[in-house]
Structure formats: C-alpha cells, structure tokens
C-alpha cells in the first residue's frame, strides 16, 4: 500500500499484520480521490481543508489528505495495534505536524460534551464491516454540526451492507468497487 498523490506520492505505508484492521484498498482510495478531484457534484479542495478520519486504522486515508496538503487531519482510532502502525506511518513522513491522533472510541466521543474548535471540510467514516451503528454516527455528526456547509461525508461499507443511510444523508454520489461501496454525501 502506498500514497497515490500529492507531495508524498508513492510513499510506501506500513499496514497491520493482524486481521482486526482492514486497510482501505488502494483502488478504492484512488477512486475516492479521483471523485473528489474531478466530480462536478462535489466542490471540495483537499488543499487547506480540515479532515476527520474516523476508524483511521493505519491512516491510509488521512495520510493521503496530508500528502495533498490538508490543513489538519484528525485521526480517530482506539485499537492499540492500529495506533502503533498509524504513528509509524506518520513518523515516516518526516516533520509533518498538521495532524492529531485521538485515541478514543468515536461513539463515546460524540456522546460526550467534547467539541471541535472548527468544522470539517471532509469526514471519512470507514468502520469495520460488522459495525452496524453507522446511521447513529452520521446523526451524531449532524447534531454536533461539525461538517462545514460545503463539506463532504464519505462512508465506506461492504457492498452487501443492508444499512439504509439515505435518511441520514443527502446523497451526492454512490460507487461500488469490488466488495466495497462508497457513499458521498452531506
């Protein structure tokens, strides 16, 4: 796995050895960024944006955003092995400081009174396929009002996932890649 664009293009990333973390497949990540860059339906420039990477795992998505000059990326992860790989990947980029790792369960965080100081231009949600509380998480994000007015939520699920997120999301785009389904909305 590697970074596909930006200032760290082709930089190889470390990935977890255990099966508890499912890295975002290279082709899916590349397709997501192609849609962000070229879709007429999405008005988002990663350069200068604030990004929230939920269930970040090894950090592949957020690292891609850093490579594309995001202003700041917040990585949310609570699995110690994934955090270790994420930190190793961040350290390998040398001298970057525009990130923060939040070592917490995002459901617990969004249930608390904790708040972010600003709104996010991009929020990426990539929970384990078995996670069924995705609609609940989208509702919490909306109630906290942390998505910028022109911001985009991207949700990565299994293509056979039966969760109907349309009620919670203004769907902009939906794509299927192999076993992956990706929703773009706000």
Protein model, in words:
By secondary structure, the chain is an alpha/beta fold. It has a single domain (26-185), classed as Rossmann fold. Helix content is 27%, strand content 24%. The chain has 5 helices and 7 strands, in the order αβαβαβαβαβββ. Strand 6 (171-177) and strand 7 (180-185) form a beta hairpin. It is globular. The two termini are 29 Å apart.
State the CATH class: Alpha Beta
CATH superfamily, by name, is Vaccinia Virus protein VP39
**Cα distance, first to last residue?**
29 Å
Adjacency order of strands in the biggest sheet: 3-2-1-4-5-7-6
Indicate the overall shape.
globular
Could you describe the largest sheet, including whether it forms a barrel?
Answer: 7 strands, mixed
Say what the CATH topology is: Rossmann fold
Beta strands, count: 7
The tally of domains stands at 1
- The SSE order reads HEHEHEHEHEEE
Q: From the coordinates shown, what is the CATH architecture?
A: 3-Layer(aba) Sandwich
Q: Count of DSSP helices?
A: 5
Radius of gyration: 15 Å
The portion of residues forming beta strands comes to: 15-25%
Q: By helix and strand content, what is the structural category? A: alpha/beta
Could you name the ranges where pLDDT drops below 50 across 5 or more consecutive residues?
none
Mean pLDDT, to the nearest integer, reads 91
The protein's oligomeric status is single chain
Helix residue percentage: 25-40%
């Amino acid at each position: 796995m590697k970074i596909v664009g930006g200032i760290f293009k082709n930089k190889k990333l470390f990935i977890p050895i255990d099966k508890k973390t499912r890295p975002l497949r290279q082709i899916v990540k590349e397709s997501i960024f192609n849609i962000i860059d070229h879709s007429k339906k999405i008005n988002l420039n990663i350069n200068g944006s604030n990004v929230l990477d939920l269930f970040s795992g090894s950090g592949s998505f957020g690292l891609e955003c850093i490579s594309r000059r995001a202003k700041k990326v917040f990585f949310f992860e609570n699995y110690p092995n994934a955090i270790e790989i994420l930190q190793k990947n961040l350290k390998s980029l040398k001298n970057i400081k525009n990130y923060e790792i939040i070592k917490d369960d995002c459901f617990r965080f969004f249930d608390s009174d904790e708040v972010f100081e600003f709104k996010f231009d991009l929020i990426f949600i990539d929970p384990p396929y078995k996670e069924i509380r995705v609609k609940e998480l989208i509702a919490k994000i909306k109630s906290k009002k942390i998505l910028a007015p022109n911001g985009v939520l991207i949700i990565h699920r299994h293509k056979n996932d039966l969760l109907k997120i349309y009620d919670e999301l203004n769907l902009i785009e939906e794509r299927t890649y192999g076993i992956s389904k990706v929703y773009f909305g706000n």
